[in-house]
């Protein structure tokens, strides 16, 4: 799997890293040769990987930009009309799937499950577009990785404080502050280029969120760190509770969801251990 949907995010991160190398070298008055060496050390592997992938596409599919999607043998996941592989028609249902749809909560171990989606599991107000494939397991990233959900709330609060002119005390050294700001931009740019591709794609599945989860978690960490100087002590305590709760629940939810996975592989391949876990963790 080439994950070609990440090409824009990778290009954005590569550009920002290259600019960072250039700005730091200029600030330190480094010789051009040293700056160029650093830039090539970073950029050449990316260019080599892109060139190799394009050469592979040319050899196998007859075009460097043909990634072979139409040759998949996964049945209804491929629209008959190639122009329908991506469309703004899919944005609303995909938004519901990735950000709103809750996981399934059950009384027995593993308690939290990401189910396969059936026709009757959609709100009546949503009208699904043609060629839209949605049956694979999906649940809200904001709920199943609660650190990201709390981080989104924290980002909203931080934005509100900024719009209202609240200047937070800055205890970070100038050099570290610039690096953190740059990291914030890189992570935000990665998300900004990843989300639209996911939302406009003809199908959705929980594993696609792996493209988004790492930068979203790191960005949430930076946002929470910025609220350590919130206007009041009780508010700071609230955000610390949110941080602790989100960081504590995220790995637990991940482990519980992985127990069933896509095809109940754990239960099928190791039923003895699975049944012992069910006995160890009684129903609610």
Strand percentage, roughly? under 5%
Q: Globular, elongated, flat, extended or rod-shaped: what is the shape?
A: globular
Low-confidence stretches: none
Reading the helices and strands in chain order gives: HHHEEHHHHHHH
- Helices and strands: which structural class? mainly alpha
Helix content: 55-70%
- The overall pLDDT, averaged over residues, is 87
Largest sheet data: 2 strands, antiparallel
Major sheet strand order: 1-2
Q: How many β-strands, per DSSP?
A: 2
Radius of gyration: 23 Å
Helix tally equals: 10
Cα end-to-end separation: 40 Å
Description of the structure:
The chain is mainly α. Helices cover 59% and strands 1% of the residues. The chain has 10 helices and 2 strands. The protein has a two-stranded antiparallel ribbon with strand order 1-2. A hairpin with a 6-residue loop joins strand 1 (104-105) and strand 2. The relative contact order is 0.12.
Key features?
284 residues; mainly alpha; two-stranded antiparallel ribbon; 2 strands; 59% helix; 1% strand
How do the strands and helices of this protein lay out in sequence?
Layout: H1 7-27, H2 32-61, H3 91-100, E1 104-105, E2 112-113, H4 141-144, H5 146-163, H6 174-200, H7 213-226, H8 233-260, H9 265-269, H10 271-280
Antiparallel strand pairs: 1-2
What is this structure, in a nutshell?
It contains 10 helices and 2 strands, in the order H-H-H-E-E-H-H-H-H-H-H-H. It is an all-alpha fold. The protein starts with 6 loop residues before the first helix and ends with a helix.
